[in-house]
């Protein structure tokens, strides 16, 4: 391919990718399969690698991330980054309406919008390309987070059409949908990182991450709500948002023009009731004067426009009695205090428990057993205690003394300098930690031993069959005894042992993740496995060697070193090695060859030996082609567990051969 041809191809791919991206993330109407999209992106990235001089700053490849920001530079805003005056009652809104009508002559039209609860962002565009993204900061200057913002799929890197101003800024809110938030917190807790309190904090934290590839994975979203430019193209705010939508921005579908206060109240009431159904948090609505001319007349105060106001929803709250504070011990030894409440109705459910997070929160709220406390269900998923009704405090109540010993094993608790939580350091002797570690080890994304779930672990632990993860691989020696256990029987013991046996084939990166080293999540385990190849190299690596790549930070490196400095952990690994678990990266198994030349593969389902990415890489390294959809041209389908039923049907209809991962492995070795 000549450079000229490469340039044309890059342009074509970029254009198509952005269009598919727009359809998927802005319109929510996907037009191709994820897989085909990924393949096009891969082609683009490969071409750009060959011709780096052809990479444009608004190439869709920027969305995958990879660039690292060491320091976010401060940027002065072109237009002051104002906030909104808040209101909490109908009277406040009546006053606002009166002020507006006093300030301007003629009819007033308002626009009602949702108030998104995330992080404000200003996006600057020049000649239709995103050139800079800046956070609100102190209102006068914010941080340049362009690299990270480019990974947000609903933000256009290049605008559609031609009717936009040559230079303008559009502002909106970056937020994290509930589903992603819950998933991230689950993963964080799994590896011993503290959970984010709410999606807003999570968005803010993500936006300031150094590695943009990580930001890309967090799947942030962004809705735009105000536009600024020197040229005045529109007469009204509503019109500007409608146009912004045509240029490719995501603008809310729930924007309504209102003529009167009663229409505004109707909008508020509707969303106060229906906000639970949205996929993201809102904390109120925003009311804006629509006409730009009228906005100009009304002007600004030092902090906020006089032509707009926000109305904040009241968080749903209830008062109830705190009956007891108990303490939970997690897999990593982290202690979480839990408020046990007199059951109370709140937002459609009965609440009996609420997290008290850590010792500092208890201290700050001064909550005591017997207190009447306020429980709130805001945007957060777990209800929280927001305060104490001191008037109702019983006379002889005692200040809460945080526990100093582990409630499960009695060991003295510790608290790191910068840690919010207390920890039980007795990881080798504290039952919930031991069982938690085993549960993590056998979980689906780790060793995937289905037949060894939490109940079986609990039972086998209590009966003394397993005291640590390595003991799992000795269970076959106790077959007879196991069969004698009530409710176990021959069949379930055989399932259990088969599941354990099969787990020996789980690839190294997942074994590494399964060990449960603090802060080593799935992504990091994968990176470590790819970079250092085998467990011995990881065990021997120094902190400097570990942090030599941008991906592994100091905290993680310390945690790895710490883990392997413990003799018992080393012994555990040695035992696991002896039992035949994978402690070397097998990605290399697929040597460059032409064995699969001319063959087309579809990969579908979940696999045990290989990850899906490994399979795809292996196909390509051996000269084969991977496609997303089954057609008459497909040579093989490599089917794992849970293969899509549609694919299966189609394959049968077209007579395409279906093979499993073992058969595939034979093909390439
Ligand atoms: S308009 C001058 N519209 O609320 C116009 N803001 O407290 C100022 N926000 O900093 C902003 N949803 O982060 C506007 N539909 C919406 C909004 C919205 C959320 C945020 C924004 C702003 C803060 C003001």
Describe this structure in words.
The structure is a single chain. By secondary structure, this protein is an alpha+beta fold. The protein has six domains: 3-64, Helix Hairpins (Orthogonal Bundle), CATH 1.10.287; 86-312, DNA ligase/mRNA capping enzyme (D-amino Acid Aminotransferase, Chain A, domain 1, 2-Layer Sandwich), CATH 3.30.470; 316-392, OB fold (Dihydrolipoamide Acetyltransferase, E2P) (Beta Barrel); 431-505, DNA polymerase, domain 1, CATH 1.10.150.20; 508-578, Orthogonal Bundle (DNA polymerase, domain 1); 600-668, BRCT domain (Rossmann fold), CATH 3.40.50.10190. It contains 24 helices and 20 strands. The strands form five sheets. It has a five-stranded mixed sheet with strand order 2-11-10-3-9. A five-stranded antiparallel sheet has the order 14-13-12-15-16, with no helix packed on it. The protein has a four-stranded antiparallel sheet with strand order 5-4-7-8. A hairpin with a 6-residue loop joins strand 15 and strand 16. The chain starts with a helix and ends with a helix. The structure holds 2-(butylsulfanyl)adenosine. 2-(butylsulfanyl)adenosine (IVH) is lined by residues 82-84, 113, 115-116, 120, 136, 173, 225-226, 286, 305, 308, 310.
């Amino acid at each position: 391919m000549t450079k000229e041809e490469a340039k044309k191809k890059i342009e074509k791919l970029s254009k198509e990718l952005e269009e598919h991206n727009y359809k998927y993330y802005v319109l929510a109407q996907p037009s191709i399969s994820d897989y085909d999209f990924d393949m096009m992106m891969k082609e683009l990235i490969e071409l750009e690698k060959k011709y780096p001089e052809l990479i444009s700053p608004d190439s869709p490849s920027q969305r995958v991330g990879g660039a690292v920001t060491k320091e976010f530079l401060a940027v002065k805003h072109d237009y002051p980054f104002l906030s909104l005056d808040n209101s909490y009652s109908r009277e406040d809104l009546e006053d606002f309406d009166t002020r507006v009508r006093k300030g301007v002559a003629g009819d007033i039209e308002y626009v009602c919008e949702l108030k998104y609860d995330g992080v404000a962002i200003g996006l600057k565009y020049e000649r239709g390309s995103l050139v800079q993204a800046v956070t609100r900061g102190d209102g006068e200057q914010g941080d340049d987070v362009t690299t990270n913002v480019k990974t947000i799929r609903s933000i256009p890197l290049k605008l559609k059409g031609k009717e936009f101003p040559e230079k303008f800024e559009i502002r909106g809110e970056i937020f994290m949908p509930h589903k992603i938030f819950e998933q991230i917190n689950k993963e964080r807790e799994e590896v011993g990182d503290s959970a984010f309190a709410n999606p807003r904090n999570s968005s803010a934290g993500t936006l300031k991450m150094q590695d943009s590839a990580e930001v890309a994975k967090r799947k942030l979203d962004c809705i735009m709500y105000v536009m600024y430019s020197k040229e005045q193209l529109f007469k009204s705010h509503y019109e500007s948002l409608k146009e912004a939508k045509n240029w490719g921005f995501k603008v809310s579908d729930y924007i309504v023009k209102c003529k009167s206060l009663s229409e505004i109240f109707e909008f508020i009431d509707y969303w106060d009731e229906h906000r639970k159904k949205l996929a993201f948090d809102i904390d109120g609505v925003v009311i804006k004067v629509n006409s730009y001319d009228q906005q100009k007349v009304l002007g600004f105060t030092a902090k906020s426009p006089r032509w707009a106001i926000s109305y904040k929803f009241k968080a749903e709250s209830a008062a109830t009695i705190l009956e007891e504070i108990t303490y939970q011990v997690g897999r990593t030894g982290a202690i979480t205090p839990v408020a046990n409440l007199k059951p109370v109705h709140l937002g459609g459910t009965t609440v009996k428990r609420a997290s008290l997070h850590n010792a500092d929160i208890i201290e700050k709220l001064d909550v005591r057993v017997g207190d009447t406390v306020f429980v709130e269900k805001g945007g957060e998923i777990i209800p929280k205690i927001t305060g104490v009704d001191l008037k109702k405090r019983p006379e002889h109540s005692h200040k809460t003394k945080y526990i100093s010993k582990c409630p499960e094993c009695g060991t003295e608790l510790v608290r790191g300098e910068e840690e919010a939580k207390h920890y039980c350091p007795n990881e080798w002797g504290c039952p919930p930690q031991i069982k938690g570690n085993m549960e993590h080890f056998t979980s689906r994304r780790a060793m995937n031993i289905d037949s060894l779930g939490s109940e079986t672990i609990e039972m086998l632990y209590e009966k003394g069959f397993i005291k640590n993860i390595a003991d799992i691989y000795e269970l076959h020696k106790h077959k007879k005894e196991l069969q004698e256990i009530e409710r176990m029987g021959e069949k379930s013991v055989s399932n259990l042992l088969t599941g354990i046996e099969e787990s020996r084939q789980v690839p190294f990166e997942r074994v590494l993740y399964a060990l449960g080293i603090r802060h080593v999540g799935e992504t990091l385990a994968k990176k470590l496995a790819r970079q250092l190849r085998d467990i011995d190299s990881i065990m021997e690596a120094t902190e400097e060697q570990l942090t030599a790549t941008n991906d592994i930070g100091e905290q993680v490196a310390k945690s790895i070193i710490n883990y392997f400095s413990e003799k018992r952990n080393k012994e555990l690994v040695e035992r696991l090695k002896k039992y035949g678990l994978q402690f070397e990266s097998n990605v290399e198994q697929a040597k460059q060859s032409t064995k699969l030349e001319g063959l087309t593969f579809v990969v579908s389902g979940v696999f045990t030996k290989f990850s899906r990415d490994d399979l795809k890489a292996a196909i390509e390294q051996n000269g084969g082609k991977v496609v997303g959809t089954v057609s008459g041209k497909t040579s093989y389908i490599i089917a794992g567990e849970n293969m899509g039923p549609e694919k299966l049907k189609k394959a049968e209809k077209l007579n395409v051969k279906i093979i499993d991962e073992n058969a595939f492995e034979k093909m390439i070795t």
